[in-house]
Every structure is written in structure tokens, then in C-alpha cells.
Amino acid sequence: MEEHRKETRLSLVKSTPFSQLRPETWDALEVMCRVKSYRANQTVVHAQERSYFIGCVLSGVLRMEKTLADGRAQIVGLLVQGDFFGRVFDGIAEFSIEAATDTEICAFPRAEFEALLTQSPDLEPAVLLNAANELDRAREWLIILSNQKIVGRIAGFLLLMCSRFRGIDHILQPRPEGVEVKIPISRGDLAHLLGTRPESISRSLHSLSDRGVIDILEPDRILIRDMKALALAADEDEIEAIAILQKLLKNHRTEP
Amino acid sequence: MEEHRKETRLSLVKSTPFSQLRPETWDALEVMCRVKSYRANQTVVHAQERSYFIGCVLSGVLRMEKTLADGRAQIVGLLVQGDFFGRVFDGIAEFSIEAATDTEICAFPRAEFEALLTQSPDLEPAVLLNAANELDRAREWLIILSNQKIVGRIAGFLLLMCSRFRGIDHILQPRPEGVEVKIPISRGDLAHLLGTRPESISRSLHSLSDRGVIDILEPDRILIRDMKALALAADEDEIEAIAILQKLLKNHRTEP
DNA sequence: GGGCGGCATTGACATGTATCAATGACCCTC
DNA sequence: GAGGGTCATTGATACATGTCAATGCCGCCC
User: Fold this and answer.
1) Please, what are the domains in chain A?
2) The pLDDT of residue A135
3) Do A132 and B238 count as a contact with CB atoms less than 8 A apart?
4) At what angle do helices B123-145 and B110-119 cross, to 10 degrees?
5) Three-state SS for B56?
6) Residues of A with CB below 8 A from B134's CB?
7) Residue B214 CA to nucleotide C24 C1', Å?
8) What's the rounded Cα separation, in Å, for the pair A172 and A158?
9) With contact defined as beta carbons under 8 Å apart, do B124 and B130 qualify?
10) What is the pLDDT of residues A9-21, one digit of tens each?
11) Rounded to 5 degrees, what angle do the CA atoms B209, B214, B216 make?
């Protein structure tokens, strides 16, 4: 049990936004938190319900969802190791949170968390910064989703994974040929997340693979070979122009 | 000058998220803030630059943008009366902010704002709640953008305007026939915001108009006649089914 | 007043993507 | 090992949307 607490603290320390916490506050946190486990597809927080804890992800991946009027759910974000969730000073969650994979979270009783917050002024900037970062991340998603073409969205998604999940080894692994990304959700969920359909995801992914930008090792393991080309694909379909140009050159070579 | 301060306070009090502030803090705010004016398309905050103030919108509309690698700008959100912007305890903005229309903002020097924050503990929940609300709003945008069909995105956009800009009379006006929404940005910007092109915006808007869901009084003045149908269009294209059904019935009537 | 430029709209066309249907791979259970 | 389920993939087709081009409207400046 003592071992588990230490592990918990370790995971917390690793999370960037809260890394500015002072040692004495860590001790307090260590006493407060409880580790909870969830299985894939289990619901952690129901939308519109009062939640009595603030959570921090220790392992696994969670998805935030909004349930639409017709019953379908729209994914609005993913949570990974080190991410906090739950509304401080308000208990009502706007979005429900479900485990995408088997998950361990660290739960802080909300009342105690808030009390700690008001008591220690040095904690406040950290929490606010955390909120601001979360906001920026949500806006990153916005940019990806505003991409007209699906290939662009997928490229943006992969790049976002790289930038956000850096250092989380069960998701991102550097290799000599490139970077391997583990997609923590199914094609269907990914399609949903990017505002499209599984079929389109499949096609776009294979299109990128055909161009040599990525390798599909397994359906959920993507190897990024050419990060620059991927960035081009995300920002614009400038890559298309390059591909067409290359094809033209090739035809020119083979023709005579 | 004294008059202007009173007006400023009035506008601030009207803003929902900060409405929980105590009177004594208002006095402090009132002393601190400076009113600044911007003309349409003027830049208020440059991305990646250190900003020395926290802003609150008094009048007009601002757009938050991310400048992409290729020079184009992607709009990630709109700011209206009562919205705060600027990162507390950090100064570096991730996104640039530009005036979409002529704008008046209230600027708090960042250092003083932060000092005030640490001094008065009752302010903290308000600021955190504000951040959380902002986050939820960003995720609302996400849901709208994840809509596959453009009509759905526009419907979602109009509904978001209704829910967010309630009470801001120069944007939203209740009328006997419905609710009039003033679109504060050009078709091009709107298209950009919704991840599409001006032509598609135009077509979708007129499609909704043909169905009687909305009226286009002027290009930038939309009258929502049937809020329920709009919600259906946003959530799903169930409205399509209705339209097809109605057309079938009409054909059936005219045929014999 | 006339010319100019920006904006919204419309049409025709090409392209991308959703949709439907079918297949194969994998995992789980029996 | 057989059978049923889910998931990824692929193909064919219809539809929505991007793209290009042309028009008309309006405000601005000379």
C-alpha cells in the first residue's frame, strides 16, 4: 500500500502542469489521493452529474464525450497520463468521461482538493496554468478538425499525439526509422473524433502509407517515417502537389 | 472619465463568470483597469509574444487565431462582451487576438491582476470557474466542427450564438417571429471558422432558408424561425428526412 | 458621377467523402 | 475445432462539397 502511494506520487510528479508544486504540498496530496481502476469502456464520470472527486490519470487512456440529443456520443478529447479532470469549485461535469483502455486514476476528494487550494497560495498558479494549457489543447483539436480534408486531419492528429504524448512510452516510441505511435482507440472512435467514418480513416491512412510517409505496422501501431511530409499534409495538401510532381517526373522518365 | 469607469464596472458585472465577485474587489478592479479601443482587423495580442495585460471585452467582437506554418490563419474562437482573455501567471499567448469589429476592451495590468488574485482568496473560485467555462465553450466548438455536414455545422453555430450571446442585444434580438442573430464576421471568416468555404456557407444558409427554418434578412442578419428544426439539423440531418417526407407528400398531392 | 475593389451569391464541374455491401482477420466462447 | 462476434479493410456508388468562373451589389475614393 505504501508502495502504491509512492508510485502515485511519482506519476504525479511526472505530469508537467503540476510540476511546480512544492514538496510539502506533495505530502498532503499523497495522503489525500486514492487509486481507482477502471476497465475499458467503463464510465468514470457521468455528464450533468455531481462528481465528488478531481482525477488525475495514472495509466491508460480516457475519452471525454458529449452525449447528443439523439443518443450518439461525440468525443471531444482524450486524457492520458498526467492529465487532470473534474471541475474545481463546481461539481457538475459538462462531459462524461469513459475509459478507452484499462485505466488507473488517482482520485482526490473534491472538498479536500479545494480546501488545499485555498490554503496554499502557491498552488493556485499551477492550477490556473493547468487550466490554460488544457484550453490550448482543446483549441489544437479545433485546428485539426477545421482541416477540410481527412488526410489533413489524420496527419494533424498524429502530430498532436507526438507533441502531447512525448515521454509516455506505452504510446510513443522513438525508433531508428522514425517514431512509433500507438493509437489508443479503435478506428470507429478515431473516425468519430475526427468527424468522419472508419472507412475514410482506413483509406486516408493507407494513402499516407502508399506515399511512404507512414508505415502501418498493425492497425493500431503507426510508424511515422517522414515527420516533415506529415506536417505538410496537416497544414495543407502541399504534399499532394509534391506527389503529383513526382509522378509526372516518373512518367517522364519511363516514357522515352 | 469617472463616467467611463462606471460603465466599465457595469459591463463587468454583467459578465456571468465573474458575477460572483465581492463589491470590495470591484473597487480594486475599477481602479486598475484601462479602457482601450481597437478598430476592425487590428491586432490586440500577438501570438508567442509576452502580453502585459489581462483583457475583458466591453463591446465588439474579437477573433482568436492561430497562424499556421503556411501563413494562413485558423480561427479558433470568438470573444464577445464579458469574455476575458490573456493567460494569468504566464504571459505568452498561444493564439493571436484580432478585432473582428470595432472593439472596446478593458485592460488589467497583468502583474496587478495576479497580485489581486493571490491577495483575495474569494476571487480564485471565480477565475477557475471562468477558465473551466472557457474550456467547455472550446469543446462546444469541437462538437460543432466534428459535424460532417456543413448545414449541421451552421445550425450548431447559430445555436451556439443563441446560447452564448444571450442578453447581448447588439448580437441577439428576440422578435415575435423568432430570434434575430447578427453574424459579427464575414462569410469568409465564418467559412474559415467552420472549416469550409464561403460558397458552401452561402448554399447551406439558403438551403435552411428554403426550408423555412431561418430567414436571411440581410447577409449578416439571420432570423431563426424554427429553433427546434435548427437543433435537429445540428444534431443530425433528421430534418432532411422531414423535408423529403414533405416533398413526397406534396408530390402525392399534386400528382392525381 | 464614374470607376474600383471587396463581398455575397449562383452555376458548372471535378473531387472527396459518406454510404452500403462484402470480405477477411482476429478473438472469444462453447 | 467450430461458430459467432467485432473490427479493419476494400470496392462500387451516390452525394456533398471544394473549386473555378461569372455576376451583381455595395461602399469607397478619385
Assistant:
1) 2-138 (2.60.120.10), 147-254 (1.10.10.10)
2) 86
3) no
4) 120
5) strand
6) 135
7) 48
8) 11
9) no
10) 444 444 444 434 4
11) 70
